[in-house]
């Protein structure tokens, strides 16, 4: 699911990939507007499936971090206000989500963005973060 969810530099929010054409993508805003727009080859686009967060040991894929947030928030929206929360509160909360996160390379702006994205995804019914191949491997091991 996260492979088709995109972030576009310079544009707020998240977007779902609808179609790809020659030198552009057609995306739909993941919010109540559902506005569709073209994203051209010159725009910087990153799939949420390609994002990871730094820990002391390795990089943890974003889907796993989002799954941890979902567990901490019990599947509900995050109650921490990403706009108004103090950096100390954000750090304390994120330590519950990812205890061994790299405190030098993970900035509180990253945590704010994570909370914003998580709430946006949950509000719009996108709450399955585990990739299909990971879910299949877990099913085989069980």
Compile the SSE list and pairings.
Layout: E1 5-8, E2 15-21, E3 24-29, E4 36-40, E5 45-47, E6 52-54, E7 59-61, H1 62-72, H2 87-97, H3 108-123, H4 132-141
Antiparallel strand pairs: 1-2, 1-5, 2-3, 3-4, 6-7
Please explain how this structure is put together:
This protein is an alpha+beta fold and 142 residues long. The chain has two domains: 2-48, SH3 type barrels (Roll), CATH 2.30.30; 51-132, Arc Repressor Mutant, subunit A (Orthogonal Bundle), CATH 1.10.10.1650. 34% of the residues lie in helices and 22% in strands. The protein is built from four helices and seven strands; from the N terminus they run E-E-E-E-E-E-E-H-H-H-H. It has a five-stranded antiparallel β-sheet, with no helix packed on it. A two-stranded antiparallel ribbon has the order 6-7. The longest helix has 16 residues, at 108-123. The two termini are 23 Å apart. The mean pLDDT is 91.
Counted by DSSP, the helix tally is 4
The CATH class designation of the largest domain is Mainly Alpha
Based on secondary structure, the structural category is alpha+beta
Architecture per CATH nomenclature, i.e. the level-2 architecture of the largest domain: Orthogonal Bundle
Task: State the total count of DSSP E strands.
Answer: 7
> What is the overall pLDDT average?
91
Oligomer: single chain
Order of helix and strand elements from N to C terminus: EEEEEEEHHHH
Shape: globular
CATH topology of the largest domain: Arc Repressor Mutant, subunit A
Low-pLDDT segments, ≥5 res: none
Give the biggest sheet. Answer: 5 strands, antiparallel
Rounded to the nearest angstrom, the radius of gyration is 16 Å
- Give the strand content: 15-25%
What share of residues is helical? 25-40%
Number of self-contained structural domains = 2
Distance between the ends:
23 Å
What is the spatial order of strands in the main beta sheet?
4-3-2-1-5
């Amino acid at each position: 699911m996260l492979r088709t969810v995109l972030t576009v530099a310079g544009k707020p929010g998240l977007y779902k990939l609808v179609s790809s054409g020659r030198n552009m993508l057609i995306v739909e805003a993941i919010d109540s507007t559902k506005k569709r727009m073209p994203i051209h080859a010159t725009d910087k686009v990153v799939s949420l499936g390609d994002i990871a967060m730094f820990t002391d040991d390795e990089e943890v894929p974003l889907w796993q971090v989002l799954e941890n947030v979902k567990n901490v928030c019990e599947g509900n929206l995050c109650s921490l206000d990403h706009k108004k929360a103090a950096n100390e509160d954000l750090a304390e909360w994120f330590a519950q989500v990812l205890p061994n996160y790299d405190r030098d390379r993970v900035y509180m702006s990253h945590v704010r963005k994570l909370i914003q994205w998580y709430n946006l995804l949950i509000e719009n019914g996108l709450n399955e973060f585990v990739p299909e191949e990971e879910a299949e491997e877990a099913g085989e091991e069980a």
